[in-house]
Amino acid sequence: MSNWKLINKTLLYDGTFDGFLTIVFDCYSSKTLPQKVFSENSYVVNFLDKTVYIKTDFEKSSRVFNGIHKIIGYDTLYNTYHAFLCDIEKDKDINILKYLCDGFSLGPKINNRITISYVYKVMAMKKRAFGECHRLKGLLRFIEIDNNLFYASIHPDNNILEPLGQHFIRRLPTQNFIIHDKVRDICFLYNCKEYRIVDCRDFKLPNISDDVLEKEMLYQSLWKTFFKTIAIKERTNPRCQMQYMPKKYWKDLIEEP
């Protein structure tokens, strides 16, 4: 990327993966690299920045998506998507942009260049998001809020709602469910046919009827009894427990760790 032109601009986009891939397309086509890249929701206004908003173009994003898969490989596409879901790294977008633009020149070998700072950071971000998603696949707890409708709340550090929801679609293909990300206030809705991710401010959960609530409380009581019965009191290890089931997730659990 040594022959690329650095431009003193901050590129903004709508926060979607398609919006980010549109920026990748424009930068790679013009061989220019911006100073910063942010989603419009995460950008903190700085009057010294020269901001340019890039509108999402689905044709461009589709070409980049297919290009990553064909030229740089599936592993790179997988790394990119999961790194994009990470909300911990403040320079996330510019590092992924450099990773992809360099990858189109180097091909799959880009994933072996761990000594390059932005490649290392992309791998670290992917690991964080993937690891949290994997952990919540085992810790997520559904409760019945209506006949044949189940609800679960989560408080993740990263924006992993979509891959988590996709996992439970494969596990529960004939079950209607809602997964609520309370940190970002968004919901994953599945009705046995298709799924949608919606802003929870525009969505109202149904009220729980007395019959459904009584049935749900019975199942929760049985689960708590099972949880306590299989526990071996003499082998209780709180530090080990918190390593595999961090305390920040306990608020969403039915059982009492």
List keywords for this structure.
8 helices, five-stranded mixed sheet, single chain, alpha/beta, 257 residues, three-stranded parallel sheet, elongated, 46% helix
Description:
With 257 residues, the protein is an alpha/beta fold. 46% of the residues lie in helices and 18% in strands. The chain contains eight helices and eight strands, in the order βαββααααββαβββαα. The protein has helices spanning 17-30, 58-72, 74-85, 92-106, 117-139, 161-171, 210-230, 238-244, and strands spanning 5-13, 32-39, 51-53, 143-146, 149-154, 176-181, 186-190, 195-199. α3 crosses α5 and α5 (117-139) packs across α6 (161-171). The longest helix is centred in the middle third of the chain and has 23 residues, at 117-139. It is elongated, with a radius of gyration of 22 Å. The mean pLDDT is 90.
Strand content: 15-25%
Radius of gyration: 22 Å
Mean of residue pLDDT? 90
- What overall geometry do the principal axes of the alpha carbons give? elongated
Number of strands: 8
Helix content: 40-55%
Distance between the termini: 51 Å
**Series of H and E elements:** EHEEHHHHEEHEEEHH
The neighbouring-strand order within the major sheet is: 4-5-6-7-8
